Amino acid sequence: DLVLVDGCDCVSYAAMGIFADLTDVMADNENMKDDYEGILASTRYNGRMYAVPFMSNDLAIMYNKSMFEAAGITKIPESFEELRETAKALTTDTVFGFGMVAIQNEEATYSYLPFHMAACGDSYDPYVLDCEGGLNAMTMLAGMIEDGSMPKDVIAWGLADLDSQFGAEKIAMMMNGSWEVVYDEESFPNIEWDAFPVREKTVASVFGGENLAAIDGPQKERAIDVLDWYMTYEVVKKWTATEGHFPPRDATMTDEFYQGEGWKTFIDLIPYSLARPADVKYPEVSTGYQMALQEALTLSKTPEEALKDGQAMIDAALAK
User: Fold this and answer.
1) What are 177's strand-pairing partners?
2) Is the pLDDT at 28 greater than 90, yes or no?
3) CA–CA dist 176, 275 (Å, integer)
4) Residue 305, CB half-sphere, CA atoms under 13 Å: how many?
């Protein structure tokens, strides 16, 4: 009766006619008026609402504070050049300076996007991969592979693998999300960490998380009642806070709970975070990003060639 669906996949399911139309019943819901437009857009298809925002997260670069201290690093990287140099300074015979998820699925696109967004700045277009900003971002990441400061194995890493590597102190920095504020005691209990944003032309992050939809079936009305109740801020917060996520609305920014240890960078990044396109073609578009990242990080193609291949996949998807 209720479906939890990744925000970037929501419109694809709505287009199948599976979800109940919530447009009219949610029109007067005061609790949703402060939700961020980028998140709300992921609930709409053809101008109609088919889900409600459930819980959101964003990404930042987390780092092992002890390793920074041991390497004599006192300044947080504020550009791609500084990030690459910091990764090299942290790399030893047993530790790689940086790691990320680059497996060929949506986790890789999600992990790459903050770099792409930061490098593109105001010119960012989710359908344009092969551009000056994209080349800057992909060149920097491939450069870390060439430097030996990011392991080639990242092309097979999912989020669980990334956590394991950071927890085993085999990587000093990683691109990861706000959920680690809650799960760090499980994933890496003995590591003191902090986080900083990706910076180049601008500070950037990307929204992740899930939406909640009602199946268009016999229990539709009761399911919609649950969605309406869930939109109350205190109810949303009770659920999201225990999972390392946050309500995607302005109240989060001033909520004392979300100013607690570990949260600050992720919450400060909310105004700089963008959502992935609410587009039925997005899954195919994302495949273009994944292909480019795989080709660049395996060094099988130059960043320029990888971006052109990825862009060709995106263009083919949009032309259908």
Assistant:
1) 59
2) no
3) 16
4) 10
Nearest-5° Cα angle at 204, 200 to 205: 140
Residue 134, Cβ neighbours under 10 Å: how many? Answer: 26
First-to-last C-alpha distance (Å) of the chain: 32
Cα–Cα distances in angstroms (integers) from residue 265 to residues 59, 203, 245, in the given order = 9, 11, 13
Virtual torsion, Cα 200, 179, 73, 197, nearest 10 deg: 20
Angle at alpha carbon of residue 245, lines to 61 and 16, rounded to 5° = 105
Which of 296, 320, 275 minimizes the C-alpha distance to 130? 296
The pLDDT tens digits of the residues spanning 236-284 come to 999 898 899 999 888 999 999 998 889 999 999 999 999 999 999 999 9
What is the amino acid identity at position 9?
D
Both tokens of 47, joined, read: 């101008």
Radius of gyration of the chain (CA): 20
- pTM: predicted TM-score of the whole model, two decimal places: 0.94
What are the tokens at 83?
Answer: 């990030």
Residue 47 half-sphere exposure, CB side, CA atoms within 13 Å?
A: 0
* Residue 205 dihedral angles phi and psi, to the nearest 5°: -150, 175
- For the stretch 126-175, pLDDT in tens is 999 999 999 999 999 999 999 999 999 999 999 999 999 999 999 999 99
